[in-house]
Design a protein that fits this description.
The protein is an alpha/beta fold. It has ten helices and 14 strands.
């Protein structure tokens, strides 16, 4: 995935960026102008600069120097002078610093065969296979942006059927449409719509095929829920408060309830997050099994990650039906990588957990009416 480099010489000319921009840089991005908070007063275009992240948000916009808490992200070449950056904000949006020596070497595949490739983390790719969409089905991706799973689902269906993608943010929905067009996928229909309101409460016949939808409209639903994102890595530091982390649970339950209503009897619902907290993962599964009794927890295929975590009151058998990618708790193991091709999948699961983001997957089937 990436590895840290500790021998980069820091430069006298500094650029300070916000925490969100800093995380993007750690994962392979350049520094874009809107993310720049401060720059040295003598910075010119073409200068070699050191980039730091202000993780506590204490640096004032436009400051010429900053002595607060900051994390070194690497070196790059400034595309603009300090004056050009701060005199033309907020309309300036291009690259401000092109990273040449980042602390983490995270390879970028942007614009590499864009009509053929869509970069995904391993767990994100596993999710679509667990959902197992079939040609001719009607699939809902309830929280779809940025659309990697949406396009993967359509590809697995051989672009035969219908994939409905919903997201609340209009520019992200446009990005989903652009990716579908770029990849030549005609089965995707994307809408700017709040997933918590996707259930049509009145029983008037649905004639337009747009959200909201009648109950039991979909063969399979992916709920890749909004979450605290604590599984994303590399990361500078945990800047979330306990209140912020726990705020996601009610929203996830609203979406869970809507998804269960929209699913056909016998249909498949896959719930996933890119976080590692018990409250957003195993506790949500336990809540769903208790509150939505028509949902049954299922085994997953493929099963690449580890089993679920104790603490939510789930049985040992139920934990085995969950899939958790959690690199921080997987012990390092000595292994002959040359023999991996001959090893059983259960013997090599630790490898998948060792170099990916933190992630969680649960699969349910809706009981048919009796």
């Amino acid at each position: 995935m990436s590895y840290r480099r500790n021998n980069i010489k820091q430069q006298p000319c500094e650029v300070i960026v916000g925490a969100q921009c800093g995380n993007a840089v750690l994962r392979g991005a350049h520094v874009y102008v809107p993310g720049i908070v401060s720059a040295s007063k003598f910075m010119k275009g073409g200068d070699v600069v050191s980039v730091y992240s202000d993780i506590k948000g204490k640096c004032k916009k436009g400051a010429k120097e900053f002595d607060g808490t900051k994390i070194f992200l690497g070196n790059g070449i400034s595309e603009l002078s300090r004056k050009e950056i701060f005199s033309r904000l907020p309309e300036l949006k291009g690259v401000g610093v092109r990273m040449t020596d980042p602390v983490y070497l995270s390879p970028s595949f942007d614009n590499v065969l864009p009509s053929y490739l869509f970069l995904q983390n391993l767990p994100s790719a596993v999710v679509s296979h667990v959902l197992d969409p079939q040609p001719g089905e009607k699939i809902l991706d309830l929280c779809a942006a940025p659309g990697g799973k949406t396009t993967h689902i359509a590809a697995l269906m051989h672009d035969q059927g219908e994939v409905i993608a919903l997201d609340k943010i209009s520019n992200k929905v446009e990005k989903i449409k652009q990716n579908a067009l770029l990849l030549g996928l005609n089965s995707i229909r994307a809408f700017c719509f709040d997933g918590t309101k996707a259930l049509k409460l009145d029983m008037v016949k649905d004639t337009d095929g747009e959200p909201p939808f009648l109950p039991e409209s979909f063969d399979r639903i992916l709920l890749d829920a909004p979450c605290s994102g604590l599984g994303q890595r590399p990361n500078m530091a945990c800047t979330w408060t306990l209140k912020e982390v726990t705020s996601y649970q009610p929203l996830q339950r609203k979406l869970f309830t809507v998804a269960a209503e929209l699913l056909k009897p016998g249909g498949v619902l896959v719930y996933s997050t890119c976080t590692v907290t018990l409250a957003e993962n195993e506790e949500q599964v336990a809540w769903a099994l208790k509150t939505l009794p028509h949902l049954q927890l299922q085994r997953q295929d493929p099963q690449v990650g580890g089993e679920g975590m104790l603490g939510a009151g789930l049985s040992s058998e139920q934990l085995k039906r969950l899939q958790r990618f959690d690199p921080c708790v997987v012990p390092s193991q000595d292994s002959d990588t040359g023999s991996l091709r001959d090893a059983r999948i259960e013997d090599t699961m630790w490898l998948a957990n060792k170099d990916c983001i933190g992630f969680f997957i649960a699969k349910f089937v809706k009981c048919k009416s009796t």
